[in-house]
Design goal:
The structure holds two protein chains of two kinds. By secondary structure, chain A is mainly α. Chain A contains 15 helices and no strands. Chain A has helices at 2-26, 35-59, 64-103, 105-124, 132-145, 164-167, 171-182, 186-218, 220-224, 237-259, 266-272, 277-297, 305-319, 323-342, 347-369. The longest helix of chain A has 40 residues, at 64-103. Chain A starts with a helix and ends in an 11-residue tail after the last helix. By secondary structure, chain B is α/β, with parallel strands linked by helices. Chain B folds into two domains: 6-124; 144-271, no CATH class. Chain B is built from 14 helices and five strands. Chain B starts with 5 loop residues before the first helix and ends in an 18-residue tail after the last strand. Chains A and B meet through α5, α8, α10, α11 and α12 of A and α2, α4, α6, α7 and α9 of B.
Amino acid sequence: MADIAIITLSVICNLIIYLAFGSLLTGRKDTKCPLLLSVIAGFFFYYFVFFFFCVPPMKYYRPLSMLTKMWVPFVAVILIFSSILNGRKWISWFKNAMLYVKKHPLVTVFMLLLIGAQIVLVSCTYNFTLDAAYYVANVATSVETDMMNVYDPFTGAWQDHYEMRYFFATYSMQDSVVCQLTGIPALIWTKSVMAVTIIILTNMVYLMIARELIIYGNGRDEVKAGEDRTGTDHSTDSRKNSELAVVIMTALMFVINLTFITIYTSSLFLMTRTYEGKAIVGNLAIMTVFYLFIRMNDDSIKTRPWLITFIVCFGAATISSSANMLLPVELTVLFLPMIVRKKAWKMLPKYISCVIPGMVFSLVFVLYVKGYFVFYTFPK
Amino acid sequence: MQGLNVTEKGIRYLWECFSYYTGSCAYFMLYAAAVIYICIAGTKREKEIFVPCSVFLLLTVYNPVAPVILDHFFDVNSEYYRFFWIAPVIVLVPYLFSKLIVSRTDRKQMIVVSLLIAAICLVSGKYVYADGIKWAQNIYKMPPELIEVSEKIHEDSGAEYPKAFLEYEYNMQMRQYDPKMLLTIDREDYLYAVSNPSYSKEMLEDEMHPQYVLLAVLVRFQDIDKESFLNALETTKTGYVVVSRENPRIDYLKEAGLSIAGETQNHIIFKYDLKEPYEFELVDYSVVY
């Protein structure tokens, strides 16, 4: 029971931290941005900032505890700063959310059940995956040795150089920091806390996409007539039908994730290897970029859309090196046709800047593989 | 990806890779049908959102030449399938299905269409828990016996970092639970051992890799003299060998002189007394700072 309480509390803390980080990106006075987007953007922004805290001490083989001492006060400051800056906005967001819950109790209950079912499936089932031998053991090893990526997670042996495939993917080091700080075992943190967090975030994106496609898409004129996008009811039959369609769409997304299964699909990664960076990139990051694309296609987002896209792309690259090739390709197939169709040539440099992080990380990795450089784990 | 190689397969690589990716699932067919439907009957906005990206994907990711070209710059053999994740299958198919359901004005019709769609989804895919749901037996999601093995080795050893040889599944899981347990065999060596029939004479004589002898004896069940086996344990500083009760080398281990340090329901923990006691120590970085 105590473990469940710790997991629940940790997930809530995660979401609050992401909201605090995300609000710094989305919280501008002159524009409205959904609460859920702030949390999602905050997730990637959090890992984006963490990357810059983590890489220098890791490169110069400083202990994990040093990073913990730097990172934790920083997060505390951001939490305080963001709550002062965005506190009123958060209260207003939550009031709107409660209003939505009151007006659509069945929809809310159904969504909670849907997410709850997924949480139970990912956090209570046993899965044997080879990759966990690296990811989870790396967190456990880093905490045990108080070093970052210096010891081989598979055997525990000391390594004389950093494996560049994982060097820039600092996601697991964040897990190590939290495990070191809280004393939560790596297995519980990764396979329960982070798995549940990722399921919640992914379903948030699904919900945002469904609402964007169905409610705001079909009722765009209504929205433009003065409604905000935070869930305020239009009180029409069409609106009720749209809400029903959103529920059905998200339920079907869940069904597809349960049934689109081979060892290669992103659905399998989401349902069985939720805590891995690849699962986050293949589901959360790709879907977040798709959501941003829909909003930009509709010209309905004024809140730094390209900055958020950049943060999502860079943040995803710090979560898993799979993002280095996936997100540039996704950006290209989604945004290039849109830029050409809209003749929005001013967007081109922004699109390119979003592609750059992944390309740079890829290039660095290729140079490493070709033997142009190596980062040693000791002074040489 | 399952032994697929771009150099060998050439432009056929894409199709084979895609076949492995989709398996028996028909969701990509539903996605293709949905894109065609949007092209014909979709609204302007739906066309803007779903059609250009699908065409672009067809020209790039699903172009048979693409992996061949990419392979010149990056090794894409094992990871090309991840590009298939970009296609918004999970958005478009449910979107059109949900539209179809709510477009029915009659409630009975709505239920019938919903059931029909649910049936299509079930027929189109393979259920993630088709082989049954395995519920975790503890909060760590580890086999309880693995935890027991870890505790027994630490109790017996007294060393902070004991070193052990474990069977495949435990070897991949032990350090997730217990980072104080050093392992003799790394992932790549184990993958080689379980996917190849035997070790060659040259490999067994390779002094740089004494762990091959251990794998040959305990995984490939090759006939190797006990002295070489003990030497390999000594060289790799392996103090414990954990095998399941079904392992056919249990008598071999006893005859080699290993003692039983502990037992669980399905596993036996053998102990090897190293001639030169081994104490693993973390590298002292304080001299560097």
